[in-house]
Amino acid sequence: MNLLRIILGIVLPPVGIFLTYGVGTTLFINILLTLLGWLPGSIHAVWAIAKHEEKMHTIELESRRTSDSI
Q: Which of 2, 11, 15, 33 could form a disulfide bond with 40, CB atoms 3.0-4.6 angstroms apart?
């Protein structure tokens, strides 16, 4: 799913953001950037999707550490 979101973030930036964040501020920012040009929208989408995945990975690792220590 990560690869699909990143590919969609490159090809159709708002779709990749929508699948990652849903409707929200990040989506509206990406729509505005995409209206300014495909490249700014794609860069923002790939960056935002990567940051979201990094955050989810960190939360998962912390959750494992907490459950192991109990």
A: 33
